[in-house]
Amino acid sequence: MQFHLAATVAVVVLAAWLKVARIDWLWLLAAITGVWVSELINTSIERTIDRISSEPHPLAKTAKDAAAGAVLVAALFAAAVGAIVLGPPLWEACFR
Ligand SMILES: Nc1ncnc2c1ncn2[C@@H]1O[C@H](COP(=O)(O)OP(=O)(O)OP(=O)(O)O)[C@@H](O)[C@H]1O
């Protein structure tokens, strides 16, 4: 959660500094929201499974791994959006 908060602040500050277009703000906000929502659901599933039983069980493993996979998918989407939206203007600002 602390990593997500730091990443969110960094992206928002960088996007504001680069003055990205309004439509690009929507992509960034969608990506940030996707990561936060998937992480919150992942945490909820993990805690619920741990509350029910700490015994190893194949279904518990599948549920936790699927929830973690959802976070990974959202993070990959966010990385792609970040690269597409922030990459070119950042390159422009740094090297031209
Ligand atoms: N009850 C269980 N039965 C079987 N496998 C489990 C069980 N609990 C966890 N595992 C396996 O161990 C891995 C790590 O579990 P853990 O609960 O530490 O999740 P985590 O993703 O590391 O959570 P956190 O975000 O709290 O660090 C899971 O991805 C899952 O494969």
UniProtKB/TrEMBL annotation:
<feature type="transmembrane region" description="Helical">
    <location>
        <begin position="66"/>
        <end position="86"/>
    </location>
</feature>
<keyword id="KW-0067">ATP-binding</keyword>
<keyword id="KW-0808">Transferase</keyword>
<keyword id="KW-0479">Metal-binding</keyword>
<feature type="binding site">
    <location>
        <begin position="64"/>
        <end position="65"/>
    </location>
    <ligand>
        <name>ATP</name>
    </ligand>
</feature>
<keyword id="KW-0444">Lipid biosynthesis</keyword>
<feature type="binding site">
    <location>
        <begin position="17"/>
        <end position="20"/>
    </location>
    <ligand>
        <name>substrate</name>
    </ligand>
</feature>
<dbReference type="InterPro" id="IPR000829">
    <property type="entry name" value="DAGK"/>
</dbReference>
<dbReference type="GO" id="GO:0005524">
    <property type="term" value="F:ATP binding"/>
</dbReference>
<protein>
    <submittedName>
        <fullName>Diacylglycerol kinase family protein</fullName>
    </submittedName>
</protein>
<keyword id="KW-1133">Transmembrane helix</keyword>
<feature type="transmembrane region" description="Helical">
    <location>
        <begin position="25"/>
        <end position="45"/>
    </location>
</feature>
<dbReference type="InterPro" id="IPR033717">
    <property type="entry name" value="UDPK"/>
</dbReference>
<dbReference type="GO" id="GO:0008654">
    <property type="term" value="P:phospholipid biosynthetic process"/>
</dbReference>
<keyword id="KW-0547">Nucleotide-binding</keyword>
<keyword id="KW-0472">Membrane</keyword>
<feature type="binding site">
    <location>
        <position position="46"/>
    </location>
    <ligand>
        <name>ATP</name>
    </ligand>
</feature>
<feature type="binding site">
    <location>
        <position position="46"/>
    </location>
    <ligand>
        <name>a divalent metal cation</name>
    </ligand>
</feature>
<dbReference type="GO" id="GO:0046872">
    <property type="term" value="F:metal ion binding"/>
</dbReference>
<dbReference type="Pfam" id="PF01219">
    <property type="entry name" value="DAGK_prokar"/>
</dbReference>
<keyword id="KW-0594">Phospholipid biosynthesis</keyword>
<feature type="binding site">
    <location>
        <position position="39"/>
    </location>
    <ligand>
        <name>substrate</name>
    </ligand>
</feature>
<dbReference type="InterPro" id="IPR036945">
    <property type="entry name" value="DAGK_sf"/>
</dbReference>
<keyword id="KW-1208">Phospholipid metabolism</keyword>
<keyword id="KW-0418">Kinase</keyword>
<comment type="similarity">
    <text>Belongs to the bacterial diacylglycerol kinase family.</text>
</comment>
<keyword id="KW-0443">Lipid metabolism</keyword>
<keyword id="KW-0812">Transmembrane</keyword>
<feature type="active site" description="Proton acceptor">
    <location>
        <position position="39"/>
    </location>
</feature>
<dbReference type="GO" id="GO:0005886">
    <property type="term" value="C:plasma membrane"/>
</dbReference>
<dbReference type="GO" id="GO:0016301">
    <property type="term" value="F:kinase activity"/>
</dbReference>
<keyword id="KW-0460">Magnesium</keyword>
<keyword id="KW-1003">Cell membrane</keyword>
<feature type="binding site">
    <location>
        <begin position="55"/>
        <end position="57"/>
    </location>
    <ligand>
        <name>ATP</name>
    </ligand>
</feature>
